[in-house]
Amino acid sequence: MKFTVLKVAHLPPMLSERLHADYEVLEGSERGDELDAAQARGIRALVANGESRVRAGLIDRLPDLQVIIVFGVGYDGIDVEAARARGIAVTHTPDVLTEDVADFAITLMLGTARRLAQADRFVREGRWQQGPFPFTRKVSGKRLGIVGLGRIGKAIAQRAAAFDMHISYHGRRPLAVDYPYYASVTELAAAVDFLVVAVGGGDSTYHLIDAAVLDALGSTGILINVGRGSVVDEVALAQALAEGRLLGAGLDVFEDEPRPHAGLLDLDNVLLAPHMASATWDTRRAMSDLTLANLAAHFAGESLPTPIPG
Ligand code: A2R
Predict the structure, then answer these.
(1) Distance CA 6, CA 46 (A)
(2) Cα–Cα distance measured from residue 35 to residue 21, given in angstroms and rounded to the nearest whole number
(3) Is pLDDT of 84 > 90?
(4) Residue among 104, 167, 172 whose CB has most ligand 1 atoms within 8 A, to mutate
């Protein structure tokens, strides 16, 4: 007998195909209102991605739901309280994507400071013949502030150390590391050249990077976000960039994906990426394997490889 799984997100074919081979897969929306009661009954697992919104309304429609499986490390879109109240487990895919996301944070930092996208356009559009490309900003040896020194934040620090950067960080509490700790994110921003956001989403980090933090980072500062779009006040960011109160930004995540704030699209001092930090073949394969391993462990009655903490 195949167990029934509800898929509410776009998943890569390498995962979807294996899901379809091993399970009875129903495709649904995040609201689930296309499911009639008979279809909803019997759904034991729900597969989402890191951007999915799985609210109490959907959970309530699924009387037999036992586990929510997230393809991604962030699970701020899942109503964890509603799931826990029903004894529904939640899993995600930490660790396997840490290196790629850290690599991409460094890519955005270098790309923004050295204006790589603009340089590419400069060559393609034949502007090189009229004169040299304007000077850019140095990265090596500069001051880097990391907001969220977790798995990804630490991997970013490791890479930045190879660039002789001076690293400091902000989190909810100081950690047993040698980098200077700032209890205030605004004070951290005032003390660095580059501020990299590597925290997850949710209420506790909503607009943590606001106008005051951006002003503290200042007209020579660069903001990088590989955490969650909701952490940065995008309207304030677009204004700061447009007015030159912030030098630049490199963003992989946005408040309303896939629609970055319109004000950002016309700016020349922001590097935009389509939430692709973990999107390499190797890592998406590893994330797919871990997603399936969590699902299989659940149905085998074994302990889950990577449940969310708490
Ligand atoms: O505050 P702590 O000690 O729990 O540190 C965590 C920090 N963090 C926060 N920092 C400041 N204010 C908050 N309200 C807050 N909440 C959490 O973020 C920890 O150092 C870091 C998250 O690290 P991990 O849980 O190890 O997650 P990982 O794998 O590094 O991924 C971070 C996020 C994901 O949630 C996705 O949204 C994105 O990166 O890909």
Answers:
(1) 5
(2) 22
(3) yes
(4) 172
